[in-house]
Amino acid sequence: QVQLVESGGGLVQPGGSLKLSCAASGFSFSRYTMSWYRQAPGRQRDVVATITTSDGTNYADSVKGRFTISRDNAKNAVYLLMGSLKPEVTAVYYCSVWVQRYYWGQGTQVTVFS
Fold it and tell me: Does the pLDDT value for residue 114 go beyond 90?
């Protein structure tokens, strides 16, 4: 079955950086577009970044120039490098894939505080 396991979240000061990882299994990873979403308290879950099978990328306007999504098909992994962090990016970050339906990981908490 499809499984997604996120890691790499934590506490960081404004201006810092974090790299999130998502380990995928149960499907042909290289054949699917992968995405990162986030959900802040009291808010809906929104897409942050997407990477296609041909490494095409797309970002939410709020993170363009500061976040970078990448993938390693040999490791069945997708990453989100987050830089110049601001308190407003505090949220639970989820890895996601559409394989006949949406699948989500358990999420990893990112907290930016001063």
Answer: no
